Amino acid sequence: MNRHEPREAPRRAASSPPPAFPLAFAALAVSAGVIWVAWAVLLHLHRVLLANGLEQRWMDGLLVGVGLLPLLLLIPVVRSFIYAAKARAALTGSDLAAARVQTAEAREWAQYAIGYAVATVLVFLGIQFLLANGGAVASTFFKLELIRSSFGLVLEAFWKNVWMFCVAEVFILIWGLIIAVARMIPGRAGQPIRFLAIVYTDAFRGLPTIISIYLIALGLPLANVPWVKDWSPEWLAILALTVSYGAYVAEVYRAGLDSIHPSQWSAARSLGLSFGQTLRFVIIPQAVRRIIPPLLNDFIALQKDTALVNVVGVIDGFNQAKIIASNRFNLSAVTTVALLFMLITIPQTRLVDRLLETEKRRIRA
Amino acid sequence: MSFLEIRNVHKHYGDIEVLRGTNLSVEQHQVVCLIGPSGCGKSTLLRCINGLETIQSGEICLDGDRISGPGVDLNALRREVGIVFQSFNLFPHMSVLHNVTLAPLQVLKMPRAEAEERAMTLLKRIGLEHKAKAFPDQLSGGQQQRVAIVRALAMGPRLLLLDEITSALDPELVSEVLNIVRDLAAEGMTMLLATHEMGFAKEVASKVCFLYQGVVHEEGPPEQIFGDPHEDRTRAFLSSIIEAGRL
Ligand SMILES: Nc1ncnc2c1ncn2[C@@H]1O[C@H](COP(=O)(O)OP(=O)(O)OP(=O)(O)O)[C@@H](O)[C@H]1O
Ligand SMILES: [Mg+2]
């Protein structure tokens, strides 16, 4: 810069952009490496298929098709080189502004190629992992024949999970609200109730769900608790899940109700609305929108936790799959139930993200 | 005995003593303005009158009935005493009409047709009948405050408390809200209002009370308080207001 000439106004010299070619070459090298890895993995896969007598014409076609995909990485690489060349031309013509633009483009395309190359190589390494031990990994988890033959049984047992979490969710919604309102009851008369509600939520939020299920679903019949002792293990498990998740959901409700500005309470109470009317007409309707995303999150956790009921002997999807797995020394049925869980939870996870996104946009507006 | 009597009221939040023996009276059809520096307890006093805060000692009487302390039917009290706050008054998830009719429907158990008819009459008075179906976030701040006043009026209160209802508004919206208060004053509505709008207080008030550190330091007709304040503190407060260009 111009520090050596103190009289001059300090003015930054227009600097030439960083060179674009090194990054383009790096992108080329990375992409080439990834293509090599991909083809090596596909060759391996081909050999495993041959060894297992699964060789078929359409599979070869598929393999070649998949092998061509990594070649797409070369498109951004070529673009990067084109822009890098343009940048060099602009620089020799000493058009600095144009050189900067072209360089930025060249670097952007090179980075794009590298990003996709990394993702591609991870996918192919994953395939390679499944092929390890001559395909033993793959067949332990994904033995198609077993998945097909056990699917009906697993699906039927999985319905028990669905049924249990649907029933539990209804009870949890009600029970959680009761606890949340109990924690908010105003005045001195409400104090002991508030205290009990706090003890309850703290206790069950601190307790692992699996232990709650164990204690409630095994313990109540063991202790010969009247009425409850005759319940089926399914209903006892639902009771345990309700008691456990009710504590979480009560907190979700409470946070939602707390998030409503206190002036809304004042405004409603000052109009003569009672505590209950204020909750019902003013606070809850406003809180619902903020409650739904965290509530759904808790329900997703609950749905997954229905797999824990196998500890008390309920034949749910997971338990059924485990039985099949131990009979056949193969985990493919467990894979089935894992996929079923993902099938129902992933859409909900996406929905939660969408809701949170719209809520964020609404607040910013 | 006055319509509203506040006698020796004490109120503290934990260690903070906000009201320290406040005395104040409001006659029927009077408009009383509360002025005073920020934090002197204006909002607290109004909230105590409406039963939104409990007082520790002293008493508040409305039309001869004690309305403070244990055993008071707060929901009944709040039918008699309406309050409008600085902001966040309206229920954002309800239309204007629903905001206004909620309390008459749920608290007074008024038939829906009657409640809506009365609400529309009130909205017409403030020129907002065409906004009946709108939601609060579709209204300007001034319109929202006007609806909030109407919502309090829909309960037919005998006393209206207004807590700095214009101080969250853009200056050009203040007058439309004050016009309504002016109309109400002309109709003989009994009002107690905390305000920073000294010009307005001067114009509508029957009596001005200067609240300082939780006690009424000086009170009198507006000409006297603004023209010839007796107390040093009142004078200091008013001159700071004049400096700020608010009088
Ligand atoms: N809920 C509360 N908890 C604790 N302190 C409070 C609470 N509400 C008000 N205070 C305190 O009481 C004092 C009086 O508050 P108040 O809102 O009545 O003042 P104000 O005269 O209305 O002031 P402003 O003109 O700023 O509105 C303040 O010092 C405030 O910090
Ligand atoms: Mg205030």
From TrEMBL, chain A:
<feature type="transmembrane region" description="Helical">
    <location>
        <begin position="203"/>
        <end position="223"/>
    </location>
</feature>
<comment type="similarity">
    <text>Belongs to the binding-protein-dependent transport system permease family. HisMQ subfamily.</text>
</comment>
<dbReference type="InterPro" id="IPR000515">
    <property type="entry name" value="MetI-like"/>
</dbReference>
<feature type="domain" description="ABC transmembrane type-1">
    <location>
        <begin position="158"/>
        <end position="352"/>
    </location>
</feature>
<keyword id="KW-0472">Membrane</keyword>
<dbReference type="InterPro" id="IPR043429">
    <property type="entry name" value="ArtM/GltK/GlnP/TcyL/YhdX-like"/>
</dbReference>
<protein>
    <submittedName>
        <fullName>L-cystine transport system permease protein YecS</fullName>
    </submittedName>
</protein>
<keyword id="KW-0812">Transmembrane</keyword>
<keyword id="KW-0029">Amino-acid transport</keyword>
<feature type="transmembrane region" description="Helical">
    <location>
        <begin position="116"/>
        <end position="142"/>
    </location>
</feature>
<dbReference type="InterPro" id="IPR010065">
    <property type="entry name" value="AA_ABC_transptr_permease_3TM"/>
</dbReference>
<feature type="transmembrane region" description="Helical">
    <location>
        <begin position="62"/>
        <end position="82"/>
    </location>
</feature>
<keyword id="KW-0813">Transport</keyword>
<dbReference type="InterPro" id="IPR035906">
    <property type="entry name" value="MetI-like_sf"/>
</dbReference>
<feature type="transmembrane region" description="Helical">
    <location>
        <begin position="235"/>
        <end position="253"/>
    </location>
</feature>
<dbReference type="GO" id="GO:0022857">
    <property type="term" value="F:transmembrane transporter activity"/>
</dbReference>
<dbReference type="Pfam" id="PF00528">
    <property type="entry name" value="BPD_transp_1"/>
</dbReference>
<dbReference type="GO" id="GO:0043190">
    <property type="term" value="C:ATP-binding cassette (ABC) transporter complex"/>
</dbReference>
<feature type="transmembrane region" description="Helical">
    <location>
        <begin position="21"/>
        <end position="42"/>
    </location>
</feature>
<feature type="transmembrane region" description="Helical">
    <location>
        <begin position="329"/>
        <end position="346"/>
    </location>
</feature>
<keyword id="KW-1133">Transmembrane helix</keyword>
<feature type="transmembrane region" description="Helical">
    <location>
        <begin position="162"/>
        <end position="182"/>
    </location>
</feature>
From TrEMBL, chain B:
<keyword id="KW-0067">ATP-binding</keyword>
<dbReference type="Pfam" id="PF00005">
    <property type="entry name" value="ABC_tran"/>
</dbReference>
<dbReference type="InterPro" id="IPR050086">
    <property type="entry name" value="MetN_ABC_transporter-like"/>
</dbReference>
<keyword id="KW-1003">Cell membrane</keyword>
<dbReference type="GO" id="GO:0005524">
    <property type="term" value="F:ATP binding"/>
</dbReference>
<dbReference type="GO" id="GO:0016887">
    <property type="term" value="F:ATP hydrolysis activity"/>
</dbReference>
<protein>
    <submittedName>
        <fullName>Glutamine transport ATP-binding protein GlnQ</fullName>
    </submittedName>
</protein>
<dbReference type="GO" id="GO:0015424">
    <property type="term" value="F:ABC-type amino acid transporter activity"/>
</dbReference>
<comment type="similarity">
    <text>Belongs to the ABC transporter superfamily.</text>
</comment>
<keyword id="KW-0472">Membrane</keyword>
<keyword id="KW-0547">Nucleotide-binding</keyword>
<feature type="domain" description="ABC transporter">
    <location>
        <begin position="4"/>
        <end position="238"/>
    </location>
</feature>
<dbReference type="InterPro" id="IPR003593">
    <property type="entry name" value="AAA+_ATPase"/>
</dbReference>
<dbReference type="InterPro" id="IPR027417">
    <property type="entry name" value="P-loop_NTPase"/>
</dbReference>
<dbReference type="InterPro" id="IPR030679">
    <property type="entry name" value="ABC_ATPase_HisP-typ"/>
</dbReference>
<keyword id="KW-0813">Transport</keyword>
<keyword id="KW-0029">Amino-acid transport</keyword>
<dbReference type="InterPro" id="IPR003439">
    <property type="entry name" value="ABC_transporter-like_ATP-bd"/>
</dbReference>
<dbReference type="InterPro" id="IPR017871">
    <property type="entry name" value="ABC_transporter-like_CS"/>
</dbReference>
<dbReference type="GO" id="GO:0005886">
    <property type="term" value="C:plasma membrane"/>
</dbReference>
